[in-house]
Design a protein that fits this description.
The protein has 17 helices and twelve strands. The chain is an alpha+beta fold and 490 residues long. It has a single domain, classed as Cytochrome p450 (Orthogonal Bundle).
Length: 490
């Protein structure tokens, strides 16, 4: 048979199979736009601003709708009520981790962020317990953050009030906090290994937020067979894992099971306790993946929030002035800020919350998946179906936050200027898979920002009306535009 005929017949069969599979699968799923064969709804989605596309779809199909990324259906949940119902009320049913092919290539389902089932539950439980024992939310971790905040201030002083790009310095501080928890050490900001790690983190976060990476996640075959920036991501992940493995080996050689020094020691002790169990999830591979997850998640998200936060404080000097007035009144100039101060600083607390709400760092959350067949709002959701929850639709809800597109700490203040909590504040997600490091991140953001504003005035190189705060990436995460800032000692 002519090869051309064979090719045409093969493509025709693939097309017909795609049409049959999509039409049969759509019958009980939530409504949504009609997908094209093979590519699904990809041409109907603006991959440079996926959140905006989701908002438009929700207006046409309601708070729960189905999109096809390639041939696979994904249920999208939009709006506070639907998001809360999916992540909180049905937290167990939607506790699976959705597909993220580029990461699956690097960790093989290990670790805490992208694992599933018993493995995820055991590693998450152990990680939460260990972080609490090492002081998450308690004095010991607070001491480490305060120490790092002082080091950060000293680095900023070295700029002598001249303009600088704060990206690197603001990345070092949270990275060092994580290092102190995982490795029991912090690095000098000029340390060569530290510089390389920071460069790998920054590079990966930028690439993962590119439109090309969204295409690769929809069509995983591209990762294996096409050149592109995804190859750099894999290479950077491999470098980070090699560094982590080196540290693990050093810990194995000096381990004292009666005196654990850090997270790695605790994991190694757990491995020893379960060494006779054939089904133990505590292995070297899982340790490396978990440490890498904590390393990456605990560094880039907090540093990006700090960087975006200072940009907003530059843009709105009246907010900065109110925060500094509160710092002067409650803390003064001669002692370091501490977490006990927060309850006496409602405006500063509101400012930190508003930064997280406004920047909406991970707009569509990390994908979830159904762990079983279930009914959700009268729709049938098959086991394994990916779930995307729009955090944008919650954090920027105009019924909860007046003028949600405006940066205003007043969103978290009542009529008496007291701090006002909001159930709509969920930058760390909610439910079974909410961020393990929420407590740590909240502490870092408060202590780092108050310490910086206690010691420096912020000066922009351009008029405040010309400062652009629109993110330069709108895909997996929101990345702030690059900017220059002057830290003027007070």
């Amino acid at each position: 048979m002519d090869p051309v005929v064979v090719l045409v017949l093969g493509l025709s069969c693939l097309l017909l199979f795609s049409l049959w599979r999509q039409s049969s699968g759509r019958r009980k799923l939530p409504p949504g736009p009609t997908p094209l064969p093979i590519i699904g709804n990809i041409l109907q989605i603006d991959i440079t601003d996926i959140s905006k596309s989701f908002t438009n779809f929700s207006k046409a199909y309601g708070p729960v709708f189905t999109l096809y990324f390639g041939m696979k259906p994904t249920v999208v949940v939009h709006g506070y009520e639907a998001v809360k119902e999916a992540l909180d009320d049905l937290g167990e049913e939607f506790s699976g981790r959705g597909s993220f092919p580029i990461v699956e290539k690097t960790n093989s389902g290990q670790g805490i962020i992208f694992s599933n089932g018993t493995k995820w539950k055991e590693i998450r439980r152990f990680t939460l317990m260990t972080l609490r024992n090492f002081g998450m939310g308690k004095r010991s971790i607070e001491d480490r953050i305060q120490e790092e905040a002082c080091c950060l201030v000293e680095e900023l002083r070295k700029t002598n009030g001249s303009s600088c790009d704060p990206t690197f310095i603001l990345g070092c501080a949270p990275c060092n906090v994580i290092c102190s928890i995982i490795f029991q050490k912090r690095f000098d900001y000029k340390d060569e290994n530290f510089l390389i790690l920071m460069q790998k983190f920054n590079e990966n976060f930028k690439i993962l937020n590119s439109p090309w990476m969204q295409v690769c996640n929809i069509f995983p075959a591209f990762i294996d067979y096409l050149p592109g920036s995804h190859k750099k991501v894999l290479k950077n992940f491999a470098h980070i894992k090699t560094y982590v493995l080196k540290k693990v080996k050093e810990h194995q050689e000096s381990l004292d099971i009666h005196n654990p020094r850090d997270f790695i020691d605790c994991f190694l002790i757990k491995m020893e306790q379960e060494k006779h169990s054939q089904h133990s999830e505590f292995t070297i591979e899982n340790l490396m993946a978990t440490v890498t997850d904590l390393f990456i998640a605990g560094t880039e998200t907090t540093s990006t929030t700090l960087r975006y936060g200072l940009l907003l404080l530059l843009k709105y000097p009246e907010v900065t002035a109110k925060v500094q007035e509160e710092i002067d009144r409650v803390i003064g100039r001669h002692r370091s800020p501490c977490m006990q101060d927060r309850s006496h600083m409602p405006y500063t607390d509101a400012m930190v919350h508003e930064i997280q709400r406004y920047i909406n760092l991970i707009p569509n959350n990390v994908p979830r998946a159904a762990t079983c067949n279930l009914r959700f709002r009268n729709y049938f959701i098959p086991k394994g179906t990916n779930l995307i929850t729009s955090l944008t639709s919650v954090l920027h809800d105009d019924q909860e936050f007046s003028n949600p597109e405006i940066f205003d700490p007043g969103h978290f203040l009542d009529e008496n200027s007291n701090f006002k909590k909001s159930d709509y504040f969920m930058p760390f997600s909610i439910g079974k898979r909410m961020c393990v490091g929420e407590g740590l991140a909240r502490m870092e953001l408060f202590l780092f920002l108050t310490t910086i504003l206690q010691n420096f005035n912020l000066k922009s190189l351009v008029d405040t009306k010309d400062i652009e705060t629109i993110p330069i990436a709108n895909t997996f995460g929101h990345v702030p535009p690059l900017y220059e800032i002057c830290f003027i000692p007070v």
